Amino acid sequence: MKILLTGANGYIVKRLLPLLIRQGHEVICCVRDKNRFPKEGFYKHPNISIAEIDFLKDIPNEIPFKNIDVAYYLIHSMSDNSSKFETLEEISAHNFVALSEKINAKQIIYLGGITNEEKLSKHLASRKIVEEILRSGHIPVTALKAGIIVGSGSSSFEIIRDLVEKLPVMIAPKWLNTKTQPIAIRNVLEYLTGVLLKKETFNKSYDIGGPDVLTYKQMLLQFAEVRGLKRFVMTIPVMSPKISSYWLYFVTNTSFKLAKNLVNSMKVEVIATPGDLGDQLKINLINYKDAVKMAFQMIEQNSVVSSWKDSLISSYKDNSLLEHINIPVNGCFQDIRIKKITSDVDQVLENIWSIGGERGWYYGNWLWEIRGFLDKLAGGVGLRRGRTNMKNINSGDTLDFWRVLVADKQSMRLLLYAEMILPGEAWLEFKIIKKDNSFILIRLLHSDP
User: What is the mean pLDDT of the chain?
Assistant: First the structure.
């Protein structure tokens, strides 16, 4: 099949794309910024191509691809930096419908959220409206609606992990007693691939959930049980949504804007309406504890494919790589350090590519930690985002409170953009050049006050 994937830099798509390629499909990855799309390894596969389309803008008249069998709509943002984020989501959905009809798609597959309650959060209400917009066209839509997705690198998994591993005793808000139905990322991917051109699913909507209905408190305690930790959770009724958001923000690695949206959504019960789609597709649902165990197997093997932290919603402000990739020349302070490499150049390059996260920054780590703590107090991202993979870096990834702009191992250059709170902007650059038959390491700090 010929498949169009939107949101190709997102958490779900980075897991879905390898499955589609292994199944023999030709996949066109639709991205807003092609600089963020990985260019190494698996992504060089001949069945993968890239199309740069911004769904917040009118669809171009000339589309470089046609006759798509299935178009996945997996564009989603939990950001509320803009007071008009619901409007932006609607614009994106309308433009996707227009594109789908231009390319003669036979099916749209949409992954949304479970919306069975009368009173919904702003986030869930927006997901429901997006589904209605997708159905307004002539192309049959298969909607899959999930609650909390459990997998290494997912926002909910990482937040629960932070809470459980950092807090032996939790005095928590009353929404921890809200019921939800978590689903393993592996099951979500089975649903997404299972409904491909399955005509009996056309123009239908399915809630998808795992076999367990749990409160958030039970999820925390079962997570602790899997990790072999003894934890105590007490809920109190007096914690306001704003205080709850700050509680999540300071304890976990989430951004404040994501914490705010999560708190609002966590007050709504998210329980799937029973259905038989799982039986039709012969999906063996994974219970919550086993999903957590599988996630940690991926973490221990350093095989985390994608993480919510690499999404731009993990920043305290909206960013585009294209806006920052050209470093200002005039009025920019530069601190340049140069050192001749007398050891193995490849090992030096590997050391640069291993920077940040658990390994740290090679010098004055305690100073970096103080800077990260101060940044968190000021509302910034701090150091808690770490890095998704301990060995590989791609453009768009996060490295603690930096964002990767350029990660070109062949030309031996790494360029980072500062996402901590600053009076101006800053870039950190590492590059290795050859001069007079020897190699030189250059570290440049650019600052634009």
Answer: 83
